[in-house]
Design a protein that fits this description.
Blueprint: H1 2-36, E1 39-41, E2 47-49, H2 51-75, H3 77-84
Antiparallel strand pairs: 1-2
Helix pairs in contact: 1-2
């Protein structure tokens, strides 16, 4: 029964991370696109961008870019550790 509980717990953790990253990051990007497209009309009828909406869009884009960069660094952590002797995310130091 212990093995079943361990497998179920691990499967739940993987599923949660997959849902957060697989649906969460595209959702944040879509919210950024939505805020990016918000326009207001000026007195002469010309469209103008909302500065607050632009700030929210930039924040959403920054979160997505940072998450992608962290993912790339996590995947390449052993290469970075071996090549540059910088240990990220618990990478083992190179053998000397």
């Amino acid at each position: 029964m212990h093995t079943f509980n361990a497998i179920a717990k691990s499967l739940g953790e993987v599923t949660l991370i997959a849902v957060l990253l697989g649906a969460g990051l595209p959702l944040i990007f879509a919210v950024g696109i939505r805020f990016w497209s918000l326009e207001t009309a000026t007195a002469n009828g010309a469209p103008a961008r909302n500065p607050l909406a632009q700030a929210v869009a930039y924040l959403c884009f920054a979160i997505v870019v940072i998450a992608v960069m962290i993912g790339i660094l996590y995947i390449a952590k052993d290469f970075i550790s071996h090549t540059f002797d910088i240990q990220l995310f618990g990478a083992k130091p190179p053998k000397k």
